[in-house]
Write a structure and sequence with these properties.
heterotrimer; A: mainly alpha; Cytochrome Bc1 Complex, Chain D, domain 2; three-stranded mixed sheet; two-stranded antiparallel sheet; 11 helices; 7 strands; globular; C: alpha+beta; Immunoglobulin-like; six-stranded mixed sheet; 9 strands
């Protein structure tokens, strides 16, 4: 009887053992080579520069039937948007929205303009510009009564085996981070710098695009852009990275 | 609109070697890639870059498909006199981009 | 409905197309090496290329072959009497060997060039500097390029 109880206790401890201890968390930045890190660090040659410039232009451009720019209500982004990206995805109404969706909601409701398509140059630029205003700030997602159900849903997706390779995110990114996969180090998968300039794409992209890449890598059907699964997964990943500094716009391999 | 970003100091001492970093927003399509259905995507790259200093060429480069998208070209020049640095990129399909920067000798 | 015979005929017919055949060419590495040698010859002619003076700074293990930061510096006083005329960068395994050619002069102050290259496969990257006295100097770095584990297109 005691043996069974001990075994059960050990098993429960094991199911938590997969999670990376908070103090051992490292950003994807630390898994890159010196030169790639230098690309991110130099603001004048960071390849995401154009997205930031475009984002600033869009921020100041009057748009929609209301003929208003973001700046008309929000003024100087450096002030008004400081800290915003660090707490997204956030519960808006009844469910979580990611930053892209929040921006589009503003466009549709306040500017009375058409939403930007997911992964469009405009949405990436505006999201990068807004998120850049939180650079250096700690990711601030809280687990409370409102967020907890969605964080748990995201965690369940993260730990779920999927695809032809039957892999769960946690198997690589919790259990085997730091080891090599096809010659490349496996990072811990913290979304510390999105939208990123990914060297593989030679372009800017969102966290959802990156997650879709991973799912296709496991030969799974990727979740659709903006789907509840995607946003729950994003929320879980950001919560998992709570306290880590935002690096937007990051450069990643 | 052809987007470029140039980082060059606004002022320098006479004879000082200054660093110039340039970025051009360009997809640099190699002409070797194919779509999923097999069609070849035609080449579309920046082919040439020139920097002149008060009208005199001080740096020139020829780029090929192996230069990554959003090309970075960084080089140096001697701050000889106050004046204008002009930058010009040209490429396939009539691509042209220009930029000017003023340099003051202090 | 396509029969198995029809399908095989279709598949072989596609393979017969010359462009796809090129990618399956068993001699492709030899051809690319020949193209590299030809490109270098075009630049240097008959002149010997000596190792030295040139420093090619490229990561030996590359994070992603699509965007590789490269810096070339050449040890030269960059005076009117002795300067670097040009810096050429080549790769061994790309579909075509040229990366970039920079034309410098005494007004450069320092012989340095930084850019970002695409390097398709594990192999050598070669930088050749042409000096004002007509000599050629080079540096070669062997780099390892791995494919990204998580892509978005299917593997063709």
């Amino acid at each position: 009887m005691r043996a069974a109880a001990l075994f059960l206790a050990a098993f429960c401890a094991c199911t938590q053992a997969g999670e990376i201890p908070l103090a051992e968390r490292r950003s994807g930045y630390e898994f890159m080579g010196r030169e790639t890190r230098a690309m991110q660090d130099d603001d004048t040659t960071n390849p995401a520069l154009f997205a930031l410039l475009d984002g600033e232009t869009l921020w100041n451009r009057a748009d929609g039937a209301a003929g208003r720019a973001c700046a008309a209500c929000h003024g100087d982004a450096a002030q008004s948007m400081k800290g915003v990206a660090a707490r997204y995805p956030a519960i808006v109404g009844a469910k979580p929205l990611n930053l892209e969706q929040r921006i589009n909601a503003c466009r549709v409701e306040k500017q009375r303009a058409a939403a930007f398509a997911y992964e469009s140059k405009e949405l990436l630029a505006l999201t990068a510009y807004v998120a850049r205003q939180s650079r250096g700030l700690p990711i601030a997602i809280e687990a409370n009564d409102t967020t907890r159900p969605f964080i748990d849903a995201g965690r369940a997706l993260y730990e779920r085996r999927q695809g032809q390779l039957n892999l769960a995110c946690s198997q690589c990114h919790d259990d085997n981070w730091g080891r090599s996969l096809a010659g490349t180090p496996i990072p811990q998968a913290h979304p510390t710098g999105y939208p990123i300039y990914r060297l593989e794409w030679q372009a800017m992209g969102s966290l959802e695009r990156r997650l879709r890449n991973c799912m296709i890598g496991a030969r799974a059907e990727p979740y659709a852009y903006g789907s509840p699964e995607m946003v729950e997964l994003e929320l879980y990943l950001m919560w998992r990275a709570r306290g880590m500094k935002l690096e937007t716009p990051a450069v990643r391999p | 609109m052809a987007r470029v970003a140039v980082t060059v100091p606004a002022s320098a001492k006479r004879g000082e070697v200054i660093e110039i970093k340039t970025l051009a927003a360009h997809v640099m399509e190699t002409g070797f890639r194919r779509t999923q259905t097999g069609e070849l995507l035609p080449r579309d790259i920046i082919t040439d870059f020139v920097c002149t200093y008060n009208g005199v060429e001080v740096f020139r480069a020829e780029l090929h498909q192996a230069v990554a998208a959003n090309p970075l070209i960084a080089f140096t020049t001697v701050a000889t006199e106050s004046g204008t640095l002009e930058f010009k990129w040209t490429g396939d399909n009539g691509y042209v981009a220009t930029h000017k920067a003023e340099l003051k000798i202090v | 409905m396509t029969t198995r015979r029809q399908f095989l005929a279709l598949a072989c017919g596609t393979l017969a197309a010359s462009e796809l055949r090129a990618q399956l060419d068993p001699n492709i590495q030899a051809k690319r090496k020949a193209a590299l040698d030809a490109a270098i010859s075009k630049v240097v002619g008959d002149a010997p290329v000596r190792a030295g003076k040139v420093k090619l700074d490229v990561p030996p293990l590359i994070d992603n072959g699509n965007t590789v930061p490269i810096t070339v510096t050449v040890d030269s006083p960059m005076t009117a009497a002795s300067y670097v005329k040009a810096i050429h960068i080549f790769t061994e395994k790309n579909p075509q060997p040229y990366v970039i050619t920079a034309h410098l002069g005494p007004r450069a102050g320092r012989a340095t060039l930084s850019t970002r290259a695409r390097i398709a496969d594990t192999g050598r990257v070669i930088a050749i500097a042409q000096l004002s006295d007509g000599s050629y100097w080079s540096d070669t770095v062997s780099v390892i390029v791995t494919l990204s584990a998580c892509l978005e297109d299917g593997l063709i």
